[in-house]
Structure prediction request, 158 residues.
Amino acid sequence: MLEALKNFIRDAIETPEPETFLHDRKQLAEAALMYHVIAVDGVVRENERIRLAEILGNQFELAENQLQNLLSEAKEAEQEAIDLYAFTSVLKRGLSYEDRTSIIENLWEMVFADGVIHELEDNVVWRVAELLGVDSRDRMLLKQSVWKRQNKEEESPS
Prediction:
């Protein structure tokens, strides 16, 4: 019995985790967090999906098929996740503070994408910022910056 337990532990440590997604773990983690923000209020609107695709496509320079795969994988990962830590731990380990603040900025983009700020969305950004080690001041400055930028874009003539 002790030998079986040793084998189990050895196999768990030595066996690499199967790759269930095609994209870089950091890409998937960020995309899943962004999807979580737009889904947390129970309604994913078309303008939120469009904005999510724009940001991810531009940020990661993805071809259309790669982008669609990432979006699909992000949605699936978000729905299967038990908590936000599964995503934030990958990002906190692998990114600089500046890169982590960029993620918070992208999350604010998702919050404002539909023109409605839901308290659950705001709370998710706060929790993710805490888990990523982004301080409250930076989180709030990013919120204000994204809000101003989006309102300026809406007011400018097309």
Observations:
- The radius of gyration is 18 Å.
- The helical segments are 2-14, 25-39, 46-60, 64-80, 85-94, 97-112, 119-132, 136-155.
- Residues 27 and 60 are 8 Å apart (CA to CA).
